[in-house]
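Action item from last week, closing it out:
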Amino acid sequence: MSHILIVEDDRDIAELIRHYVVKAGHTAEVLASGTQALPRVRARRPDLLVLDLMLPGLHGLEICQALRRDPATVDLPIIVVTARAEESDRVAGLELGADDYLTKPFSPKELVARIGALLRRASRGGTVGDGRTTYEGIAIDREQHIVKDNGREVVLTAKEFLLLEFFIQHRGRVLSRDRLLSDVWGYQYTGGTRTVDVHVRRLREKIPLLAEALVTVKQFGYKLADPPAGDDEG
C-alpha cells in the first residue's frame, strides 16, 4: 500500500482525487496550501505527490523545484495537475522535475492509472542480472537507485533514471517517442511527446557523454549509440 500526498486547494477536486486513490488501494492525505507542502513532505515523505500548480502561499512549481534540489526528495515521484493547459506551462513543470502532467478537467481513473504506473516503475528493482547496468563510463545500480558517471554520482529523478536505463538496455536501436512514452511512462500518454524531449535534454545536461551518444532521430525519436567494441555492457 502506497501513501499519496495530494496538494490541491479546490476541495471538490481534492476529495475526488482522494476518493479514487483510496479506492485503488492506497492511503491518501490532502493539503490545501502550498506553504504546508514542503514541511509535510520532509516530515513524512509520501510515496508519490499529486501537486496542483496554482496554490495559495507557494506556487506548485516552486514546491517541485525545492523538492528536486533536496537529496532526500530528488527521486520522489511527482504528478502535476493544473488548469493551465498551455505547452509552456507543461514544459515548465517537467523542466523543474515533475514526472507527469495532467490538465483539468481530467479523468480520475486516468490519474489513478498514471499513479499506479509511476509507482511501479519507481519501485521496481533487481530484475536484470544483479541489478546493475553499464554503458561506457555510466553505471546504474537499480537496487540502490544510484547512477554514476565515471565514478561521479549523478542525481536523477525517478523518471530520468528509468529513461536512462531503458536507453541503455536498448542501445543501438531507434526508439520512437511513442514507444518511450508507452514503455517508460507505462500508459498511452495524451499530453504530447514534448515530455520525452524535456527528459532527454535533462539527461544530456546531467551526463555529458549523452550529449553525443544519445542521438536525435529527426521527426521520430532517439537512439543511444552502440558502445565501442569491448565495452562492458552489463
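Closing note: The mean pLDDT is 85.
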